[in-house]
Each structure stands twice: as structure tokens, then as C-alpha cells.
Amino acid sequence: MKELTDLTTREASSLLQRGVISSMELTKASLEIIERLEPSIHAFITLTTELALKQARAADLRLKQARQDKSIPLPPLLGIPIVVKDVLCLKGIRCTAGSRILDNFTAPYTASAVQQLLDAGVVILGKTNTDEFAMGSSTENSGFGATKNPWDINRVPGGSSGGSAAAVCARYASLGLGSDTGGSIRQPASFCGLTGLKVTYGRISRYGLIAYGSSLDTVGALARNADDLFLAFKGMAGYDPMDATSSAEPLGDLNLNEQIDIKGLRIGIPKEYFIAGVQAEVNQAVRAAITLLESQGAVVNEVSLPHTAEALPVYYLIAPAEASANLARFDGVRFGLRATQTSMIEMYKQTRGHGFGSEVKRRIMLGTYALSAGYYDAYYGQAQKVRTLIKRDFDAAFQAVDVIAAPVAPSTAFLFGEHTNDPLAMYLEDVFTLPANLAGIPGLAFPTGFDQNNLPIGMQLMGAPYSEGLLLKTCHAYQQMTEHHLKKPALSTLLSTR
């Protein structure tokens, strides 16, 4: 049998339900590898060891009762250890959003998506590192230090869900929860050789997610393959009355254990995504993956998304504007850091000045300016109009094709500090992912090869609203024919870097 930490979610679930292994054994194996590797990787902000062991004991009791009484349901995630990005609230546990302004904040309630998984019996190992308030593409912006990429600790794991991506990549857990506002699940998945899903806006509840851009934020997951990702998606998706933007669209029935036939699937290749400046190996690997799908009966055609070039400036007007409004609540009055000053205005200034990092301050100022009197119509209002044009581009494309295939990022994982002093270069890392957030459509990233430095290369599939099942089905078919998703970094080498 495989090492316990190498088991996929589906494999571990089967062994748990048959009584071959226990959740306690699985959880202790995860905690052991965390203890060995975490000094090198720094995927966590808060490790919840006692809670995990308590949840594992409860899961084993449920598993035992279900084996004795066949009428008791056995959720597939029962007893499975997972990690949770530290922007999702978990009652009684510190929730920082990667910011020092929330260093001492304890969540008073649990996010709906997390609660659904807890009801299914998952074991939560801890809260993972993130760019501050999910603002970043490298996890270098965290107030608690950077997370390292297990494939090469001199490189970033991507962001902002870099902690969850690194944790799943390093075999801490087989599933990691994240959030995606402009690519924050898909880009780390690409950089760490994982499969990551950004859902349709409203598909998974945002209740309990610390908001960045309220019209862009989505909750999702990272895993090692499409099958495991499907289990997480199915466990979290659904209508939530606590979220006014939550969708009641039915999930549909999909079983990824079966052999998938993609004959006749119409794949669109957007000419605006295969442009100069993309790393040659990325371009080649993505095109090779498309060719392989075509060999299995998929039909490939070029499509055009003419407003793609406008997506980056539109995003960096809308997202900072919404962040400016959302982060106004962090003022030192109700929760989190509070500077001790004689006047209220000075307390506000000192609290926000010391509590927020430089990137968060930059985006707040950009957003406040875009929303200010005299500039609202010219900037934020105009950006929303162009956003509508971007959505219409996708709507038109999906009249002709079923899915759109493209690179996740222009390059593989970059070195720490490479973009630190150049915000525009950092923002360009999301140039291929953020259009899906603006349009509210789902996107799925998965590995399609490696570059000359043995760094993973990711491809993304985008689909019409609520087509997550089709994206997962297509990815699963690809992963049945390839082994890119089975490869893992040489974790033993990380021990020497402690």
C-alpha cells in the first residue's frame, strides 16, 4: 500500500470506509510530515493539532457505527484531513487573512463552505498562509512570512492561495480550500502541479469568507486530481440563505470513477491568450494537451475574446474599489489590532498604518481614488461597462464551443523577489485568469507538463456558467491518459534546508 500521505482523497476514503485504516492514523501521518517539512515550507499560519485529533476520533466513531449499521450514510470525505486558507472563518480559531491587523482575531462563527465539509466529517489540520487579504500572486505579501514552493523552495508557490497549494503539494493533505478573486486558486495550482477549481460566481457560499472583491470572490479547492476535486466541490456547492449571491442551480449527476468519453467536445482556443511573452515551454505544453484531447475525439477551433486586453485594467479598478469598501471595517474599533492613541482619528491612522501591508495600502488607495467624487464615472463606472463587454465575449464564444483552453499563467513559478519591486509585472501574472472572474464563469487548472527546471506547467479550461461538471469531466479524461498529476517533488531534499 502507498504511504498514507500519498493516498488520494478517493483512495483514503475507500480504505477508511472498509476499516483498513483509521482517520486517526491518517491524521497522525499528516501531522508527522507537517512537523518534518513545515520549517522549510511555511504553509501554515495556524496549525490546529488538538482540533484535528479530536475530529479524527469523532470520524472514526462515525465510521465504526456505519460499518455496524449499513443504514448510516458514509460521506466520502468522512475522516479525510484537509487544510483551509486563512480567509475562511472557523469558529474558535484565529483567522488572520494573512494580515497583522487581524493577528489577534478569533472567528466567532464558521464559513458555510467549511461547515458543510465539517458536517461531512473532514479533519481540519490548520489555516494556511495567504497573501494579505488575498491580494497577491505569490504569497510574498503575507504578514506572516512567505510560503515556499515544494518543487523549488527558492520559488513562489503562487498566490494568494499559496499556503493551501504548498500544503497539498507537500502531501500534508489531499485537499486544500482556497479562494479565487482573480486567479488565486488556479495560478497556485499551476505553479505547484495541482488541480484547482474556481467555481461559477455564487456556486459556493461566500458566507464566512473575509471579503476582498465582493463581486469577484469565489470559494474553491485544490487537489491532486479532478476526481478528488469533484468530491470537495460536491461537498461545498449549493444554495446558502446566508449569502445573498448564492445560487440554487442544481449540481447535476456526475461520476468521475467511470471512463469518460469526450468525443465531440468542442474546445475553443482563444487567440488572445497565445501571445508573445508567454514562456515557450508553457505554450508547447498547453498545445500538446489540446492535441491529445483532440486525438480522443474533441473538436478544436479558434475563438476570439476581443476585450481580453482590457481585462487587466478593468480588474485593477473594480477589485481595489471593492477592497477599499470592504476593508474600511478594519478600523481598530470592533476587532483586530487597535493602536493606543488619544484621538479617534489618530487611532484610525495608526491602526491601519501599522496593521496593513504595502500591497493592501496600495490597493485601498487605488480603489478609494476610483470611487471618489469626480472620478467614479470615469473609472469605476467605465470599468463596469467594459466588464459587461468581457462577459459578452465569453457568452458569444460559448455559443460555438463547450470549453475554452488556455495557459494558466505566462510562466512557471518565478523566483522570490523577482516581481517584488514591480507591481505591474506581478499583476501580469494573472492576465490569463482574471477574465473568468470578471465574467463570473468557472475555470479549472491542471498540470500538463514540466519545464527544463522541473517546474510544473498548468493549463486552464473555462466553461459557461455552472459547467463545473463538464470541466472536471474533461480534466479527468485527460488525467486518465497522462501522468503529470501523479508526479511529486522530492520532499526528502527539503529536510536538508531546515
Quick structural summary:
This protein is of the alpha/beta class and 498 residues long. Helices cover 39% and strands 12% of the residues.
What would you note in describing this structure?
With 498 residues, the chain is of the alpha/beta class. It has helices spanning 9-17, 23-41, 49-68, 112-119, 162-169, 186-192, 226-236, 280-295, 308-326, 344-355, 358-371, 377-400, 423-427, 434-439, 468-481, and strands at 44-47, 81-85, 123-128, 175-180, 195-198, 218-223, 266-270, 299-303, 403-407, 443-450, 456-463. It has a single domain, classed as Alpha-Beta Complex (Amidase signature (AS) enzymes), CATH 3.90.1300.10. The chain contains 15 helices and 11 strands. Strand 2 (81-85), helix 4 (112-119) and strand 3 form a beta-alpha-beta unit. Helix 9 (308-326) packs across helix 11 (358-371). The longest helix is centred in the last third of the chain and has 24 residues, at 377-400. It is globular, with a radius of gyration of 21 Å. It starts with 8 loop residues before the first helix and ends in a 17-residue tail after the last helix.
